[in-house]
Each structure stands twice: as C-alpha cells, then as structure tokens.
Design goal:
Helix content is 50%, strand content 10%. The chain is of the alpha/beta class.
C-alpha cells in the first residue's frame, strides 16, 4: 500500500524534496512508516496518530485470545456498532453531549438537510450524545455494501497484524527523515491499539513532538478536533521553517 501511495504521488508530480506532510492514523500510520522509509528525503513532516510499529499483546493470553475470537463471531448490527465504538472512543466522550463542529449553510459544498433544523444559523441539528452521532455515521457506512465489505475488514486485520518495524528500522527512519520532523500521538483510552504501542514509537523514534492524550481514544480528530487541527498546523509550520533554512 505504501508503494501504491508512492505511485500516486509520482503521478501527480509531488516529487520534490521535503514537499510532503504525511498524516497516518491507525493502519494509515503503518503505511506512513513504510512510505517514509521509501522516500525519507521527500517527507516534510511525518505525523503518526494512534498507530504502532508492530502489534504487541498487552493483555493476558486468554484475554487476547477472546478478543481475537470475538472479532469473527457473527453479531447483531447493534452489538457490532456498540463494540466498535467502545474500541475506538473513550467512554466519557461517547456519553458526552454531541460536540461535533457543524457546517452552516454558508460552508462551501454544504447542502441543506432534507429536514430543516431548529438550530440557529445552521442547517444541521445535533444529536443528544456523541455516541448517537457516531452510531448514525457507522450505520450509514455499514448499510452501504459499496463502502463496507467484510472482506475488506478481514484484509485490514491481516495487514495490521503483519506490519512489523524493528527498533533498528525505526532508528533509520528517524535518522533519515529527521526527528525534528516527526510527531507521534496516542490516547490512553485507545482500545483499538493500546497506548503501549504509542509509547514504543516514542521511545524508538525519539520524535521532537509527541503527546500521550489522557482520556482520549483512537480517534483524536473526533474527540479533540480543534486541538488536533492546531497541533498539526503547528507541526507543518515548524517543519516548513526547517526547509527554508
């Protein structure tokens, strides 16, 4: 997949040194590591979010076995959505009032909803909780066979399971990309890839910028949207100043 990405980058002409800001979440972070090893001199900043150098068991043998078996046991749609939410988000965030940043009718490309909202200055209303919004998004995805296939899910599980970057490989990545260009962030409530994996990346990459988010789950961009955007914009700006020197 990293080579597929590289082919696209070459096709669109993004081939200059230090031109690319790479953001990789979860499996995307694993692909980003592979890409950075392929073209380290073209990376302006490398931002690894909720990802891992390699999958390590951070629970007991039997707990890990139960988790793996549960992934393949048929479940009701409601149960599948609930379990996925518990893996991806902090429980406190799921229970909190819906805090999504909503577009308004002046936002480019936004169409008014079929049912007008009572929210002031907005075409879109809010759900009661973050969990309700997540569930609506997840159901929309899962009920569309063109965007959600069980085969694709299984292949993603296999891809992440076989990803492996040693401490020596990560050191080479950091040496060639530049530690001042690397950011790592991971949440303590990530039940998809436990925070241990983020700490391993921080230890073995020794990046200039890293954050262990207390009480945050797998998806920083949903739980801490404004902070996530500000952090990345700051990283981009600092990395680009290195190019200008």
């Amino acid at each position: 997949m990293a080579r597929d990405t590289l082919e696209i980058l070459n096709h669109v002409g993004w081939t200059e040194e230090r031109q690319l800001h790479v953001i990789g979440l979860s499996m995307g972070g694993m692909i980003s590591q592979e890409l950075a090893l392929l073209i380290p001199n073209r990376i302006c900043s490398l931002n690894l979010v909720s990802t891992a150098a390699r999958i390590e068991n951070t629970t007991t043998f039997f707990a890990n076995l139960r988790t793996r078996i549960n992934m393949f046991i048929p479940k009701s749609l409601d149960r599948s959505v609930a379990d996925a939410g518990a893996a991806m988000f902090a429980a406190a965030w799921l229970d909190a009032p819906d805090d999504t940043h909503l577009p308004d009718l002046s936002t480019p490309g936004v169409l008014p909803p079929a049912v007008p909202s009572t929210s002031p200055n907005s075409g879109y209303g809010r759900f009661e909780t973050n969990y309700q919004r997540y569930a609506a998004l997840e159901l929309t995805k899962r009920l569309n066979p063109e965007v959600f296939e069980r085969k694709g899910f299984l292949l993603q599980v296999l891809a992440t399971g076989f990803h492996h970057k040693s401490a020596e490989q990560l050191k080479r990545l950091a040496d060639e990309v530049g530690r001042e260009r690397i950011l790592v962030m991971h949440g303590t409530e990530d039940n998809m890839l436990t925070v241990h994996h983020g700490r391993v990346l921080i230890r073995e990459l020794n990046p200039s910028t890293h954050s262990i988010g207390e009480g945050i789950g797998h998806l920083f961009m949903m739980e801490k949207t404004a902070w996530f955007h500000d952090t990345l914009e700051d990283m981009f700006a600092r990395a680009e100043k290195l190019v200008a020197k």
